[in-house]
Design goal:
four-stranded antiparallel beta sheet, alpha+beta, membrane, five-stranded antiparallel beta sheet, Immunoglobulin-like, 3 domains
C-alpha cells in the first residue's frame, strides 16, 4: 500500500529528512520564476529601439539560462532510482565526481607546519586561507557585477535627463543595483577584517601531536585594537563528503571543543603585540587526524576576537595529530606478567 504524502520522512538522529516531492516542487517553482522573468525581460528589451538594448539582453538571458538549466537538472532527477543515480556516478565522463585522494597515506603531512619556525616556540602554525580566498572571490564577483550594473545605470540616467524614461529596464536594473551595493558592503567588511585587524600568530612547542600529550602554545595578536574578548579553543571537526543524487555534498560536524584561553578587556599596541601562553592537551581517547576520499578528521586551534569598532573575526590554525606509537611486544608482555604476580 502506498504511503500518504508527508512533509517529514525518515528520521536520522535528531533530524528528519524532507519530502523529495516537496523539494522538487520548490526547485521547479524557483526555476520557472527565473525562466519566466528572463524570457519576459528579453522579449521586452527586443521591442525597444534603443541602441544599448542589445547589451541589456545579457541580464534577462542570464536569468533565463539559470532557470532553464536548473529546471532541466531538477526534472532529470525526479523519479530516478538509486541504482540509476549510482550508475551515473560511476561513469568516467560524469563532471561532478568526488575528488580523488591526493596522498596514499591517510595522515596529513606536517611539512607545511614544520617548515616555519616560531619566535617563542618551536613551530609557527599555518593559518587557514579560506578567508583570503573568499575575499578574492568576492572582489571578482563585485567588480564584474557592479561594472555591468554601472553601465546600465549610466544609460538609464542619460535617458532620464533626455526625458525618455524606460520603465521596464529601470525596474529590472533597480534590484540588481541594490544587490551590487550589498556585495560591495560585504567585500569591504571582509577586506577590512582580513587586512586592518592585524596579524594573528599561533606557535606550538612540538609537531605532530599525539593523543594524551600536553604541549605548550602561545598566541600573538598584532595591530592596534581595543579588545573586548579573545578566546582560543582546541577544536576537532568531522567532515563527510557524499553524493546526494548526482550532486556532491559536504557535511561538517564539530565533535570536540575545549577552551584553552580566555582574555578580556586589553589593548593591543603596534609596538607591543599581545602575547599569552597556554597548554594544549589532546584527549587520550581522541581520534587522530585523518583524511580520505569521503571522510576527514581535522584538528585546529581556533582564535576568536571581539574588538571595539571592528567586526568580530575568527581564525583557524590546523594541527597535525598522529596516532600514539604502538608499545613493543616485550613491554606489553612484561606489564601483563607484572600484573599477574
Amino acid at each position: 500500500m502506498r504511503s500518504r504524502f508527508s512533509l517529514l520522512l525518515k528520521k536520522r538522529g535528531r533530524r528528519r529528512t524532507g519530502s523529495p516531492l516537496l523539494a522538487a516542487s520548490g526547485a521547479i517553482a524557483s526555476d520557472l520564476i527565473f525562466l519566466s522573468v528572463g524570457v519576459g525581460g528579453a522579449i521586452a528589451m527586443l521591442r525597444e529601439r534603443d541602441q544599448w538594448a542589445a547589451w541589456a539582453l545579457a541580464i534577462p538571458l542570464s536569468l533565463a539560462a539559470i532557470g532553464g538549466v536548473g529546471l532541466w537538472r531538477t526534472l532529470r532527477r525526479v523519479g530516478a532510482s538509486p541504482e540509476w543515480v549510482r550508475w551515473r556516478a560511476d561513469r568516467p565522463w560524469l563532471p561532478h565526481r568526488l575528488p580523488s585522494v591526493l596522498s596514499a597515506s591517510p595522515l596529513p603531512s606536517v611539512e607545511s607546519a614544520t617548515d616555519s619556525p616560531g619566535v617563542r616556540m618551536q613551530y609557527r602554525l599555518p593559518i587557514d586561507g579560506a578567508r583570503g580566498w573568499r575575499v578574492v572571490g568576492m572582489a571578482l564577483i563585485c567588480v564584474l557585477w557592479n561594472g555591468l550594473v554601472g553601465f546600465f545605470l549610466v544609460e538609464i540616467v542619460s535617458n532620464v535627463l533626455q526625458g525618455n524614461v524606460n520603465w521596464p529596464i529601470t525596474l529590472l536594473v533597480a534590484p540588481l543595483a541594490f544587490a551590487g551595493v550589498g556585495l560591495g558592503y560585504e567585500l569591504m567588511r571582509d577586506a577590512w577584517t582580513a587586512t586592518g585587524v592585524g596579524v594573528t600568530r599561533v606557535e606550538v612547542s612540538d609537531l605532530p601531536m599525539i593523543p594524551g600529550g600536553t604541549y605548550r602554545c602561545v598566541v600573538i595578536q598584532a595591530g592596534q585594537l581595543r579588545v573586548r574578548s579573545l578566546v582560543a579553543a582546541l577544536v576537532c571537526e568531522e567532515v563527510a563528503t557524499y553524493l546526494q543524487g548526482t550532486d556532491s555534498r559536504v557535511a561538517t560536524a564539530e565533535v570536540y571543543r575545549n577552551t584553552l584561553l580566555r582574555e578580556r578587556r586589553f589593548d593591543v599596541d603596534p609596538a607591543r603585540p599581545f602575547e599569552a601562553e597556554f597548554e594544549i592537551e589532546i584527549p587520550a581517547d581522541a581520534m587522530h587526524s585523518f583524511r580520505s576520499t569521503h571522510n576527514e578528521v581535522a584538528w585546529s586551534v581556533e582564535v576568536q576576537c571581539l574588538a571595539h569598532r571592528w567586526p568580530s573575526f575568527r581564525r583557524r590554525f590546523p594541527l597535525c595529530v598522529y596516532p600514539a606509537p604502538a608499545q613493543p611486544a616485550s613491554a606489553t608482555k612484561g606489564q601483563l606478567s607484572g600484573a599477574a604476580t
